[in-house]
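User: quick one - fold this with nicotinamide-adenine-dinucleotide bound?
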Amino acid sequence: MPKKIVLLPGDGIGPEIVAEARKVLEKVDQLFKLDLSFETDLIGGSALDVHGVPLADSTLDRCRSADAILMGSVGGPKWDHFEPALRPEKGLLRLRYDLGLYANLRPAILYPQLADASTLKREVVAGLDILIVRELTGGIYFGKPRGIRTLENGEREGFNTYVYAEHEIERIGRTAFEMARKRKGKLCSVDKANVLEVTVLWREVMDRLAPEYPDVQLSHMYVDNAAMQLVRAPKQFDVIVTGNMFGDILSDAAAMLTGSIGMLPSAALNKESRGLYEPVHGSAPDIAGQGIANPLATILSASMMLRYSLAQKEAADAIDAAVGRVLDQGYRTADIYSEGMKKVGTAEMGDAVVAALAN
Ligand code: NAD
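Assistant: Sure. Structure tokens for the protein plus nicotinamide-adenine-dinucleotide:
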């Protein structure tokens, strides 16, 4: 049975970068006999233009029956004035929600060749390779009750609820232990158990799971300390697991350690490890249509897709190695360019990765 991959190029630079990722996937398909099949559909502003909604039911059905989904990015000034329910990002939120994509994987990898792009000292970040596993469908972003109410004295009060049920903690915990097991075997669970009861329970559940993964070394850290450690000595971390809000903040901080948004892939997985893969960056309307966007974050998202949803480790390793080789050869898109390197456009970068795969 062919593996069905749905491509959702989206808006802005999305179609340009997804086209390059497809070239790379077609090459590994040929090299590793993966039997991939591709279907392309609309999301975000491009879906609004055609269907009047940012994610059509037919697209959702197609995604439900896919083995994995590779997205570019959504949004742009053309659709900024649309009412909230019809904003391009609503299409993405609906997709995440309907497919139950509760585990957000955000690697922060700094290729040694790009160490000078970071605002941190080279020796602190060169070779950095962290995976942040963020719970994506629960916690304070979804907890009820929530709202803004007026008190008896007329003052207004805003309130949210930070809640996690044991099963939600357990499933993200298991995802993180499994990830750590496939990497260096170190898992750091980040909480605020000195103040918040919900994270006392979080810590208890992580400790309860630990004996089932004797090959993984579990540690705990308070979120304030984790923020400090991420900028002080980030290479101490292998896998970090945390809730939705802490993960939102820490993953952006970790991403910026690398200094180049055009290099960062991400994944959101459901309980069957089917997932949505996309670059961390947005649709970059300022450079769309110019053929200069960096396709590597999307190509690396395709590699994550092979690794985590299609169990094709060898093909994923080959893509990661090819990206490393291309950087070694000095190829750079404008966003990661430094003097003395070979400046290339989107398609040339994709071609260079394809060529590196063949060697
Ligand atoms: P952005 O990530 O699109 O762009 C920020 C800056 O980084 C821009 O200068 C852009 O040119 C540059 N950049 C981004 N990706 C790049 C790449 N691959 N190569 C080279 N340079 C790159 O963020 P923004 O400008 O805040 O948002 C633009 C639009 O994207 C908005 O409509 C926003 O809502 C949307 N957005 C979508 C997603 C998503 O689809 N998941 C995520 C973030 C933002």
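One thing worth noting: The longest helix spans residues 14-32.
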